[in-house]
Amino acid sequence: MFKTRLISGIFIAVITALVLYIGGYVTGGVLLILSLIGMFEFLRVFKLEKSILGIVAYIGTLIYYVLLMLSENEWLTPFMIVYLLVVLGAYVITFPKFNDKEMMVSFLSFFYISVMLSYVYQIRVLENGLILSLLIVLCSWGSDTCAYVVGVTMGKHKMTPILSPKKSVEGLFGGIIGAGLLGALFGFLFGNKLGISGAVLWFALIGAVGSIPAVIGDLAASAIKRNNDIKDYGNLIPGHGGVMDRFDSVIFVAPILYYLVIM
Question: Of 20, 22, 80, 211, which has the fewest beta carbons less than 10 angstroms from its beta carbon?
Answer without folding.
Answer: 22
